[in-house]
Amino acid sequence: MVRENEGKLGITWPVRELSCEQEEIKNEALNFAKSKIEERQKGIFVIGGQAGTGKSVLVTALFNEIQAACKDKSSIFSGTNNYVLVNHPEMLKFYKRVAGESPMLLKKNFDRPTSFINRIHKSVEQVDIVIIDEAHLLLTKKDAYNHFYQENQLQEILKYARIVILIFDNKQVLKAKSYWSKQKLVAILGGDNVKIRHLQEQFRIEANTDVQNWISDFCSEKIDQLPAKQKFDFRIMNDAKRMYELIKTHEKTVGLSRLLATYDFPYRLDGNDYFVKAGNLSLRWDRSKPQESLAWAERADTIDEVGSVYTIQGFDLNYAGIILGPSLGYDEQLDKIVVRSELYEDQAAFNGIKHLGTNIEAAKERLILNALNVLLTRARKGLYIYAVDSKLRKKLLQN
């Protein structure tokens, strides 16, 4: 069981018990896979759910049950060849660690989509079940930088897998090259042999619904009155260094507490340190350490760093301090948040955006707001926000 102060990063085997909703959807996915194997048909099972609805916990339990049945000669899953794919290096570390703690799982059955696709193309291997966590991160166009040379990762996986189970949240799409619309998903999946279910219950944020509603509205460019005081510690900060001190205090007492920032500060993968500068605070961005077996927020040294959306997506924290950079401002006349995409440092996120066939600026704003949503939905026990833009900070403090 997971201890009370642990999030996904602190998980140990066995994983925590599933809720009734998770158990029901897990069983539906299993029965769906069984029926497709018996009928010798292809099938796609989509599990939707917003941040904090327990998608990755469900994936772990589902795959563990499939792999246990794989070793049972009397099971329909006996001898099947199955994989979990995730297009996120930190999440892959998490799954491989879970595999190392489970008697039923092997690390080799967890992989990145590109590695899987490139290997399967060479071997022309047919697989039975592929579960894709964070499927909203699948590439929807060529990406030579990541060694993907086909047109769409989901389409490639569907060529070689009999059953695909997708874990999907369209509010967590962060790049134009993995931009998914409902129309695109439906076009790829088709209407036959497809089942879609949604997780609704929130497990991460230990707060009243007014906090969740405030975050949702904020990520839609609206600023509501602050939620009423409650057990969940929600604060707007006027001092970035003070916010960092609070986070360090929580790290000492309950752990899993980190600073995060919108991608509004320069960063390069060249081995040098780059810094997030917000008010009276200057702290380095997270250092790239792909060889580390532990995820970023698990490592003790990262309390001295600021995490990005790419570092923390998919994971829980106990307390999160969020720095809103210059790309997020406030329009006093319209009384709404202003998104300045030209100030967003992750301009690579917009590569290929002209080919989406939609309003380019609106699409850029949507990607930035999706990234904001990921950051603001990490915390279980407390969330602190500091805005670099003085007008936005003033407005938030007034509320």
UniProtKB/TrEMBL annotation:
Protein name: AAA+ ATPase domain-containing protein
Gene source species: Liquorilactobacillus mali KCTC 3596 = DSM 20444
Domain AAA+ ATPase: 41-209
Pfam families hit by this protein: SLFN-g3_helicase (PF09848)
SUPFAM superfamilies per record: P-loop containing nucleoside triphosphate hydrolases
